[in-house]
Design a protein that fits this description.
The protein is built from 13 helices and ten strands. By secondary structure, it is an alpha/beta fold. Strand 9 and strand 10 (286-288) form a beta hairpin.
């Protein structure tokens, strides 16, 4: 490359000298200069083109951060004879991951199914952020023993699982509750951040109401609530209610044995127990449960009834529509004035 450039420069200089000599003897010398100017410009462009191999147009911006993190620094000379220098990669610290389970397609389903709460990290071995998370994640796994189980999956090896859960970047950490993926962890990538978040998710998810004053406070403060009237605040029915409540993040579950309290929540006196209602501060404020008192059926009822009958289709509210268990949706495209006219019909 260097020899070809030298030859090109030699011929260019020779040509310019010859042209200059002719120009001095020509009355149209300035015109000739203008005609030859483009050659110098082209040569200048070629030199600039080869000057910086890391120019923006050659960077793979999609993976640039990964490339930056992948190795040491490069120090580029400015034509003064400096050589490229590459810092040696430092060995990764040894992390005690004795409490972090390693999952594959063979044991994944069993692991998330047998643990009421499980955090699962999808990672890639080359990912710098994953390497930084590793000691924090391992420490959190140890502190959360008895509360939640933590595991990791090498997404470069378990491509089917990564595709199933639509992994777009690393690390991605999911919370599984009773075998179902419920949340993406988006908190601090520290031991304390993970522990605090996980303990909150694993805390008792149903609350007892034993006085009328408590009931009135709940009705006043909560935008939507689920209340069950049971024979006992412990036992199989309470356990089913608690299991269903862990599948919902955006509303509170309560239970009571008092018919007077239940009446405040519009559960009739003398109704057969267990009885359950969902109350909302919306026009269609009451939904009564009528089904088998099991986690799955309760969860399906709550998911279908917790959203308004008519929702304004916005970016923020899109998840309420497309992540709902009700799969048949009717979407009205209209102006604001026209929408108001059609709302009564839509609610019917």
């Amino acid at each position: 490359m260097a020899s070809s450039t030298s030859i090109s420069l030699f011929f260019l200089l020779s040509f310019l000298l010859l042209a200059t000599s002719r120009a001095e003897n020509s009355p149209n010398g300035s015109d000739l200069d203008d005609e030859l100017a483009f050659l110098a410009a082209e040569e200048s462009k070629e030199q600039q083109h080869h000057a910086d191999p890391h120019h923006d147009q050659y960077r793979d911006f999609e993976n640039y951060d990964d490339l930056e993190q992948g190795g040491g620094e490069f120090h580029h000379g400015e034509g003064n004879g400096e050589e490229y220098h590459h810092e040696e990669e430092q060995p990764l610290p040894i992390v005690d991951e004795k409490d972090v389970a390693v999952l594959t397609k063979d044991n994944f389903t069993e692991f998330v199914g047998k643990n009421s709460f499980a955090l699962v990290e999808f990672y890639a071995p080359w990912c710098g952020a994953c390497q930084a998370l590793a000691p924090e994640y391992a420490a959190a796994a140890t502190e959360l023993k008895g509360v939640a189980a933590l595991a990791k999956i090498d997404a470069t090896e378990e491509g089917d699982l990564a595709q199933k859960y639509e992994i777009q970047g690393f690390p991605t950490v999911f919370l599984f509750v009773d075998g179902e993926m419920r949340k993406t962890y988006e908190g601090e990538r520290t031991k304390d951040g993970i522990v605090t978040w996980m303990k909150k998710k694993a805390s008792p998810s149903i609350h007892n109401i034993t006085t009328v004053e408590e009931a009135e406070r709940v009705l006043s403060a909560e935008p939507k609530v689920v209340l069950a009237l049971l024979d006992s605040l412990v036992g199989s029915e309470s356990a089913e209610l608690a299991a269903a409540s862990r599948l919902e993040d955006d509303l509170s579950f309560y239970q009571t044995t008092s018919p007077d309290i239940a009446k405040l929540f519009e559960i009739a006196t003398g109704v057969k127990r267990p009885a359950l209602v969902l109350l909302k501060k919306e026009e269609e404020k009451l939904a009564r449960f009528d089904g088998n008192f099991t986690k799955a059926v309760i969860s399906e009822f709550v998911s279908a009834n917790k959203v308004p009958l008519v929702i304004n289709f916005t970016r923020e509210g899109a998840s309420l529509i497309f992540e709902n268990t009700v799969k048949n949706q009717l979407i009205l495209f209209a102006t604001a004035n026209e929408s108001e006219k059609h709302l009564p019909t839509l609610r019917e």
